[in-house]
Amino acid sequence: MKKLIFIYIVCLLTLNSCLNDNYEQPDQTIYGNLIDPLTGENVQSKSKGQLVIRLLEQIPDNPNPEPLDIQVQKDGTFRSDRIFTGTYKAFPYRGAFVYTGDTVEINTAINGGRIDFELTPLIRIDVSVRNRDITYKLNATEATGDLALKGVAAMYNSYDEVDETSCSASRTGSYNSLTSQSQIGVENTVTLSKMPVGENYIRVGARLSDTWNYSKIIKAVITEKDSLPPAVKFVGNNNFSPANDSASFIVAVFQGEPPFDLVYSDGEKEYTKENINTKRDTLFVKPEYTTSYFPVSVSNFVGNGEVSSELATVNVFAIKDEFANSFDAYIHEHNSSSIYDTEPVVAFKSSTDGYQRRAFIAFDLTNSDLNDSSEDEFFISYSLVYSHHDLANSFVLEGTEELVDNSLCWKNQPAEESYSHIHTTINQAYGIDKDENTLIRKFDINATDFVKELLDKGVKKFSLRLTCLEKNAYYVKIGSMRHDNEDFRPKLMIKGQVYKE
After folding, report:
1. In this predicted model, which residue has the larger pLDDT, 13 or 142?
2. Three-state SS at 81
3. Among 195-199, 351-355, 415-419, whose mean pLDDT is lowest?
4. Above 60 in pLDDT, residue 322?
5. Where do the DUF3823 domain residues begin and end (predicted)?
6. Pick among 3.30.830.10, 2.60.40.10, 2.60.40.2060, 1.20.210.10: CATH of 122-222
7. How are the residues of the chain apportioned to helix, strand and coil, as percentages rounded to the nearest 5?
8. pLDDT, tens digit, 9 for 90 and up, residues 24-83
9. Is the CA virtual torsion 187, 193, 194, 200 positive or negative?
């Protein structure tokens, strides 16, 4: 009898477990694409974990359902075949993009299946590959706004998973991090010199937020030597050169295998430079008036190559010293009451030593006949006497109507609220120290709007301050008005009539 009762209980339990196993399994499918509305192409993503489609099941009496995330793949597609039948709200979640669409409601039994979302990446990236040379262009979007470029990386891998955490980063040259706001909108080329011969997968990423935007992944077969004919183009549009003994520069960007022989022209005369052993070469020029340069021919061991029709223009303008009397350049140091007397060199420090220094430059236009209706443009010119890095885009320029003098220190600086940010266009040029025949890196900052606004109010004395944002620069030096070399002294210049003897 006991045995029969035991068998009966076992049968009941078995039947109950079978009933439990008969619950409906998740068998609905949701799939689709994340599409850039401008290009019509998929928004590229990280292989795993960066960007998801978030589903929130609409359950009565449960206003906070547990989210269900579908991973977006590196090519901007997503798919899940294990969704329970039900009604969900769906939207893109996380990632470097802006989504302005509405949350989409899906009833898997009625309208389940494919659903596409349109979203705008913070930045678009175009890439082309020529052997180990990676050429990319960062294109601003409606979502870019005032976001600053925090990093760029050209990456490769031996298989088609390529992002900042999945690449051959342990090899020298495989992970090129380049950060400069000036990269946006222009073509840049980097060489992944250690990329091995054979099949590789290449990608460029850029970061304006905590997450990255990516280009498509490009499959390329790398050879020991680039056996294609060479190519060259000039860059350097809108470089400026004062009408004195200073030189300016243009940059020749090559593709192919060095060394290269180059012939270029200014439209009147041809110039030759041979045995160029780099793919990015600086050509120093000294025009007497605004001049455009272009390549005529390029060759290497393969033979003659292709030249670009793009021009590199050096704008020459006169310095009208009589109108701009500069007080001088001064520095102050954070958390210090020390007074820094004017010195021939103004030294910045970065956060690496616990301090931050700023340079101040004061100008007096009292004796000038300038006014806000002038067609002239105003430039603040300064030179880097010493720097570990090219810092043209690592400075913030601000202006105030208050003046600084040689008693300046942190505790008596002009009030913070008196400063206004000067939206600047920074043009890099080069000069030559005539006495020591050394390179001077010069930067001309367009401060026209700020200066004309002061002139409109009748203000003819003002101060500027430069702040160095580069944390790894250790220190940067610029010249003061006491520097022996005039090229190192800060100036307020006017772009006036074309200068010509």
Report:
1. 142
2. strand
3. 351-355
4. no
5. 29-117
6. 2.60.40.2060
7. 10, 45, 45
8. 788 899 999 999 999 999 999 987 768 999 999 998 888 888 999 999 999 999 999 999
9. positive
* pLDDT score recorded for residue 341: 60
Q: Tokens 């030593």 appear where?
A: 353
**Cα 297 to Cα 146: distance, rounded to the nearest angstrom:** 40
Torsional class of 50: left (φ above 0), alpha (ψ -120 to 50), beta (otherwise): alpha
Mean pLDDT across 418-427:
73
Contact 183, 149 (CB under 8 A): yes
Asked whether the predicted pLDDT for residue 206 surpasses 80, the reply is: yes
The residue among 333, 350, 344 whose CA lies nearest residue 490 is 344
Are the beta carbons of 476 and 348 closer than 8 angstroms? yes
Which pair of structure tokens corresponds to residue 194? Answer: 């250690």
CB 208 within 8 A of CB 96: yes
**Which residue shows structure tokens 């980063």?**
169
Q: Does domain 231-317 have CATH number 2.60.40.10?
A: yes
Return the CATH architecture of domain 321-495. Sandwich (2.60)
What are the distances in angstroms from CA 324 to CA 211, 216, 321, 367, 433?
46, 51, 6, 8, 23
Structure tokens at 280: 């990015």
Go through the chain and tell me how many residues it has: 501
